[in-house]
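Make up an example, fold above all:
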Amino acid sequence: MLENEGTQWTNNDGFTISTNKGFLDIDAIHEFLSKDSYWVNGIAKELVKECIENSILCYGVYKGDPTVSPAKQVGFARVVSDLVRYSWLGDVFILPEFRGRGLSKWLMSVITENPKLKGTGFHLGTRDAHTLYEQYGFKQLEQIEKRMMVRPINWDVIYQSYKLSQH
């Protein structure tokens, strides 16, 4: 799978990116996604945990180094992929008070330069960060091909399958 690959990057400003899921602050991730995101606002914490557990790679961005001492999680992104043909990037965020420091660009560089993800067809959805993603090779679809199909998400079924009630 992804053994023997670098899982941590540090910059000169005291920030670290790590793919070690053990360092992730699930409460902080859930707080942002459920309250501040437009894409999964209100999502249950249990479902955030499942998304993380079932994603091949999760990237935590930290103020400090989580291998040395507790570090504050300030950003996150996760990747779903077969590591050959298909990758999907989701739940990307940097906390508002840490924006403007180049952390989003650094995070995107780390993700898109991963040797196992670099050549895959990478997909994502955004309504407001097109210029960021375009810097890393993402392009807006000009015309959706007729062979492409999608089955829309059904939150009622998801919550039922995890025996959760929606708020």
User: Anything to note?
Assistant: Helices lie at 26-35, 45-53, 103-112, 130-134, 155-161.
